[in-house]
Specification:
Largest sheet: 7 strands, mixed
Shape: globular
Strand content: 5-15%
Number of strands: 13
Radius of gyration: 28 Å
Structural class: alpha/beta
CATH topology of the largest domain: Serine Threonine Protein Phosphatase 5, Tetratricopeptide repeat
Helix content: 40-55%
CATH superfamily of the largest domain: Tetratricopeptide repeat domain
CATH architecture of the largest domain: Alpha Horseshoe
CATH class of the largest domain: Mainly Alpha
Number of helices: 35
Distance between the termini: 27 Å
Number of domains: 4
């Protein structure tokens, strides 16, 4: 229970059966600095606890009862006492005081509802499954800021239904291959040398006594090529622990930097924000494997086990060792294991050691070298071999399913969707009750060839219940929220992912990127300054976003020669420096094994040439791209930016508008950006100035990744400069004010 005493706090009252929905509401409000008194401990009683509840109901500024079919079915429960106490308090209040804000999380009707009479006299808000939108959060904040304003409308009037605020649809943040590179998340992922945060003990969130980091295992084998096997054992133990909902386990990405580290366990514990650290080694000789491990209390550097864990077994029994080690760790940390968790922990992923070996080799390629066309192409046959050797190897089927999406995007292979479908359905059939299956299914249904967001949400909800401390689940929830236009929830889940795994640079990158998209610049500054490991990147970038200053970011790149070339070229695009942009892409082409640019970069390159007056070169490049497109019509779609270069202006507009129609039909999808950025720029380039201004105005009202200074500097918008409505739009302070 959050501490009492704040006069503007909200008290959230709910049935224990509705805890998941109540938590969503509490998290959304807390994300916007609303103090919420919310019992997260299962509503366990006691005299002291009872007195605390009574005091908080007496002191809170707003009382939110969560109403559902569950509360209807429960004729007796502590929440009913809370409701009566809240109603009694209303009797002491002046008329017109807003204190009650009933929230129904399903279709439970007000008529005949088993609630106090005062609840029926107040307008209900409906939040299906407890999913709040921006309007709900703003409503709560307004009531807290003006607690004595007119009472809410009585029941019987139209109910306020807030399910996600469709008018604030989240437009994608990926590469727009026509006229520009997307800003937002894509830019943040390009930044080089991004140092993970290194919190000190004071900056850490409250340390959980059930938090642990599994450091990379040492490869003790004579054959040093067996390093992939040691890493595989470590990752599987880490994953097994992550699948125990009562534990908080730091991700593989975050612990990877501690391979061969000279830092003390105490220092590692402080940096990762964990109470315990597991060190281990693997020695493989033929068909025999020896696994050792030592569990250390990072706060004292004392060994939890009197002796090191040390088991030598036949290779085929390696899974039994992993299970035993995970169970001993869970026991030492006093983690509760549900029957389902115990069953999954003891289930061997495969009985075929050759299949497991291929699986580990493929995973090592992707973990160590990243996911690009080359590594994915090398990993796929290894995963395929694993399932050929053991058709019941669910985890390998899952990996085979998820790599189809990037292969589909990068290779344009139309066979990929069917391969993904077969693989994911096989995994679900083999391991329907495994949270890892739910995560893979959620990922599949977010793919561009599936786009079934309702099913993705369902699987993510199951995974979140099973794995409440898993940062990856929160990250995927944020991704699903973006697709569905749930901007408030995006922030809630990105923040949660970051808090659960601060050392993971991806968690930091996506949170900061989203904060920039919603223009919460003050929070970016605060988080950056709180981070002792900050390299000053975001502090240098913010002056550009806030007031268009390029000096700070130019200085940052000058002092960071290791900067990723993609990030630097994107910065040159943001600042409208076409000459430097072309120079960087020329250097990239020289480094490329094929001597060619990516298709999207080629079109951007041609647009930059046009901006510099090199129209002939730009059109030559455009004709070459079009010739390739016609040779591969199934893989390369018509591009509005290319059509502009070829002088086909109306065709460019039609293509962009068709893409927007597809986006609207499919729902929110961050990968379908032509309905946003492309059409605005295309309209501007074809002389449709008023329509372009209207489109930019729409984009600046949603988290589109666009910023007024990116628009102002764009070399594609020279014709718009000086046009009064365009200048008025960019000069309006509201268009660079926080969105949420």
């Amino acid at each position: 229970m959050n501490p009492a005493g704040h006069p503007q706090a909200v008290f959230l009252s709910y049935s224990r059966l509705d805890m998941a929905a109540a938590r969503r509401i509490a998290d959304a409000l807390a994300a916007f600095d609303v103090e919420v008194w919310f019992d997260q401990d299962g509503l366990e009683g006691g005299d002291a606890w009872d007195q605390k509840i009574r005091r908080q109901i007496k002191e809170c500024a707003l009382f939110i009862p969560v109403i559902s079919a569950n509360t209807q079915a429960q004729r007796e429960g502590y929440f009913r006492l809370e409701w009566k106490l809240a109603e009694e308090r209303t009797h002491l209040m002046a008329d017109g005081t807003s204190f009650l804000l009933p929230v129904a999380i399903d279709e439970t009707p007000a008529t005949g509802a088993l609630v106090p009479e005062s609840f029926l006299k107040t307008q209900w808000t409906r939040l299906p499954r407890g999913v709040p939108g921006t309007a709900f959060v703003e409503r709560v904040r307004a009531l807290l800021e003006k607690p004595q304003h007119a009472a809410l409308p009585a029941a019987g009037r139209p109910e306020l239904k807030i399910a996600g605020q469709p008018e604030k649809r989240v437009v994608g943040i990926a590469m727009a291959v026509a006229l520009l590179i997307a800003a937002g998340g894509w830019f943040w992922l390009q930044r080089p040398g991004a140092k993970p945060s290194v919190p000190d003990a004071a900056a850490n969130p409250a340390l959980s006594a059930k938090s642990i980091a599994v450091l990379p295992f040492t490869n003790m084998s004579e054959d040093k090529e067996n390093g992939y096997f040691a890493d595989g054992v470590q990752e599987d133990i880490l994953t097994s622990l992550q699948n125990i909902g009562d534990l908080q386990v730091i991700s593989r990405t975050s612990v990877g930097q501690y391979r061969d580290t000279k830092k003390t366990i105490r220092q590692i514990g402080v940096e990762l924000g964990v109470a315990y650290v597991l060190e281990g080694s693997v020695q493989r000789a033929g068909d025999t494997v020896r696994v050792t491990g030592q569990l250390i209390d990072a706060r004292t550097e004392g060994h939890v086990w009197a002796q090191h864990y040390d088991r030598a077994v036949a290779l085929k029994d390696i899974f039994a060792v992993q299970t035993a080690l995970a169970e001993e760790i869970a026991s030492a940390l006093k983690a509760k294991l549900s029957p389902g968790e115990k069953s999954r922990l003891e289930r061997a992923p495969t009985t075929n050691t050759a299949a497991y070996d291929n699986y580990l080799r493929a995973r090592e390629i992707l973990n160590n070298e990243g996911r690009n066309l080359d590594t994915l192409t090398r990993a796929e046959p290894l995963f395929q071999s694993a399932v050929d050797l053991d058709p019941n190897f669910a985890a390998a089927w899952g990996e085979l399913a998820v790599i189809q999406t990037p292969l589909y995007r990068r290779a344009g292979d139309k066979t990929r969707p069917e391969k993904a479908r077969r693989a994911i359905e096989t995994m679900e059939r083999l391991a329907p009750d495994d949270p890892e299956t739910w995560l893979k299914l959620a990922t599949y249904y977010l793919a561009p060839y599936a786009m079934d967001y309702a099913r993705s949400d369902g699987y993510l909800e199951r995974a979140a219940r099973a794995l409440p401390n898993n940062g990856l689940v929160a990250l995927l929830q944020a991704e699903a929220d973006r697709r569905n236009g749930r901007a408030v929830d995006v922030l809630v889940h990105y923040r949660k992912a970051y808090e659960l795994d601060r050392r993971n640079s991806l968690m930091r990158t996506v949170l900061f990127g989203w904060l920039l998209d919603i223009r919460r610049y003050d929070e970016v500054v605060r988080l950056e300054r709180e981070d002792p490991g900050s390299d000053g990147y975001y502090l240098a970038l913010l002056p550009f976003y806030e007031r268009g200053s390029t000096r700070e970011m130019d200085a940052w790149f000058a002092t960071h020669p290791e900067a990723n070339s993609d990030a630097l070229s994107t910065w040159r695009f943001f600042t409208g420096n076409a000459a430097e942009y072309i120079k960087l892409l020329d250097e990239a082409r020289q480094r490329s094994a094929t001597g060619m640019l990516r298709p999207g970069d080629q079109i951007m390159y041609a647009n930059a040439l046009t901006a510099l007056g090199e129209t002939v070169r730009a059109q030559e490049l455009a004709r070459a791209i079009e010739a390739r497109r016609k040779a591969e019509p199934d893989n390369l779609a018509p591009d509005p930016g290319l059509l502009i270069l070829l002088g086909e202006k109306q065709a460019a507009i039609d293509t962009a508008e068709a893409a927007r129609a597809a986006e609207q039909k499919a729902g929110i999808n961050r990968n379908l950006v032509r309905g946003g950025w492309d059409i605005a720029f295309i309209l501007a380039q074809t002389g449709e100035k008023d329509r372009a201004v209207a489109e930019f105005a729409r984009l600046l009202k949603i988290p589109s990744g666009l910023n007024v200074y990116i628009i102002r500097n764009s070399w594609a918008l020279k014709a718009m400069q000086g046009y009064p409505p365009f200048e008025a739009l960019l000069n309006d302070p509201k268009n660079n004010a926080p969105l949420l």
